[in-house]
């Protein structure tokens, strides 16, 4: 009973205190306003939103953007390098071609053959046209017509008719070497019936069916001989150990050192030198 009385007394005391506060606010409005202002001023501010998550997101995204940008720039840089190297290579090829064309401007600077082009080829064609060997115009292109004309020149000058303008052929063109037919006609000849010792070899197998320098077709029955200077069609009489044969000059050669004649297989068979290969015999023309 005593505890209930004390509890009721404290409760009524609090109610009385609240009533006094209400009465004071009603009687003194300025004070209540000031209190409200004080409460408003002293009130705690709401915490500002943290920017740390945004910073973390930005930090995580920065390396990714850098990698993506690096990949893109790297690919563009690689393409630029490829284009640059291609341009440099093309420029180098142009310089090499220009240098080659400028270097080979004179006849004799290089060996000419099919299908080369240049000023030196045109010079060669002009020389062949001057000699009446080339009917086609000078186009500065080494084609089949130029090769045929060059082979005709080589045959007429007792050169190897390979259709290639090498050092020897170009030197003969520059020196305007006379025909070997004319040289043979003006050279002193031995009296008829005088046999001189000469060295001869023979050829044939492996070359059958080909055209000789004098325009004949090489066969196993052709009684012919190759010589460097004698005109095509010249008759030469050979004798060896009691055998003799008359062979016609049908080809140019031989080009080996110390050899005067190169007999065809049929002529060598008539003389009996097939097994010997190289023989010293007597010749007269």
Distance between the termini: 175 Å
Tally of DSSP β-strands: 6
Q: Profile the largest sheet.
A: 6 strands, mixed, barrel
Number of helical elements:
8
Helix content bin: 40-55%
**% residues in beta strands:** 5-15%
Mean pLDDT: 78
Tell me about this structure.
This protein is of the alpha/beta class. Among the domains are: 119-177, Muramoyl-pentapeptide Carboxypeptidase, domain 1; 181-187 and 195-284, Barwin-like endoglucanases. Helix content is 49%, strand content 13%. The protein has 8 helices and 6 strands; from the N terminus they run αααααααβββββαβ. The protein has a 6-stranded mixed β-barrel with strand order 1-5-2-4-3-6. Strand 3 and strand 4 form a beta hairpin. Helix 1 (2-27) packs across helix 2 (29-42).
Short description:
With 285 residues, the chain is of the alpha/beta class.
What descriptors fit this protein?
alpha/beta, 285 residues, six-stranded mixed beta barrel, single chain, Barwin-like endoglucanases, Muramoyl-pentapeptide Carboxypeptidase, domain 1
Secondary structure elements and pairings:
Blueprint: H1 2-27, H2 29-42, H3 52-103, H4 119-130, H5 144-156, H6 167-174, H7 180-186, E1 196-203, E2 224-226, E3 235-240, E4 243-251, E5 261-264, H8 265-271, E6 279-284
Parallel strand pairs: 1-5, 2-4
Antiparallel strand pairs: 1-6, 2-5, 3-4, 3-6
